[in-house]
Amino acid sequence: MADSRDSAPKMHEHQIDVSEQDVLRLISTQFPQWTGEPVARIPSYGTTNAMFTLGADKVVRLPFIPGDGAGVAVETALLERVSGELPVAIPEVIATGRADECYPFTWNVLGWVPGEMPVPEALADASGLIDDLIAVLVRLRELPTEGVRVAQRGGSLAPLADLVHETMRELDGEFDTEVLRALWDDALAAPGWQGDPVWVHSDLLPSNLLVDERGRLAGVLDWAAAGVGDPSCELLAAWNVFPDDARELFRARLEDRLQLDDAMWRRGRGWAVSQAVLALPYYRNTNAGMAEMATRALRALARESV
To answer: Which positions fall inside the Aminoglycoside phosphotransferase domain (predicted)?
Structure first.
């Protein structure tokens, strides 16, 4: 590895350091046609990959935790299945790099997708973004599922039951955890998905969405958690992407377009609770962006009622 290292605290026990010098070396030895193009680290909320711009139109994405290099092949296959199928942009896999004597994982060069991360408080009119996101979800449900793995959040909430309850104790006094526990228990009690598995992104957080200057959806990033399963996990967006006054509009339009029922909403709210409850204590001191997103979601959820 290169000598120059980032000074940010590590998020994970076995996280390795990745620097601009590493990217320059990997590019020069494996993709010499891009040698000389400028490289710069992208400030990111990412928890498993370091991101660097390469020139004006490419992104280098390098895993920094053991085992995640294998996920590059999985995500590449998922991106290739979805490529050209959605009404918004997704990253294009331009090249795949290999591990070498200094960097231990497989890695990707992706096409740059322009846009900005949506901020709920800055969405003066979320109606267009709601329509755009629902159009993506509608199209995903239409895609063939044969041979596609189960998504990271494509199954039941039940395996997380005890962990979420235990972790929630760390948030007592900071949030209304009585409400959060009630929402979580309600989600666990909701009837399960009875339909066939469908395509889901399963990680629709603001950090994985891009909007244009009008606030319309421009791109959907990070397909590492995607696959097939229960589409309730897509409702993460309700409490993470949209402000309170747009959430009911999102629900109403989902009911109209995708036959959303009460049980799915309850399970989706459970996914939002579990994601935020588990993320905040873990990333509080190492990933300010993730901690901020989790805090915002927990505050929104604490204003809910069962």
So the answer is: 46-271
End-to-end CA distance of the chain: 51
Instruction: Give the Cα separation of 287 and 295 in Å (integer).
Output: 12
Any idea which architecture 20-111 has in CATH? Answer: 2-Layer Sandwich (3.30)
Distance CA 293, CA 306 (A): 22
What confidence tens digit (pLDDT) does each residue in 175-197 have? 999 999 999 999 999 999 999 99
> Would you say residue 6 has pLDDT above 70?
no
Q: Is domain 120-302 given the CATH code 3.90.1200.10 in the classification?
A: yes
Domain chopping of the chain, boundaries: 20-111, 120-302
Contact 296, 241 (CB under 8 A): no
**DSSP secondary structure code for residue 116 in this structure:** B
| C-alpha–C-alpha distance, residues 306 and 297, integer Å | 16
Tokens representing residue 96 in the block: 């795949």
Which tokens in the block code for residue 277? 């409850």
> Counting Cβ atoms within 10 Å, is residue 117 exposed (0-12), middle (13-18) or buried (19+)?
middle
Task: Give pLDDT tens digits for 212-231.
Answer: 999 999 999 999 999 999 99
Q: For 13-51, how does the pLDDT look when each residue is reduced to its tens digit (9 = 90+)?
A: 788 889 999 999 999 999 999 999 999 999 888 888 999
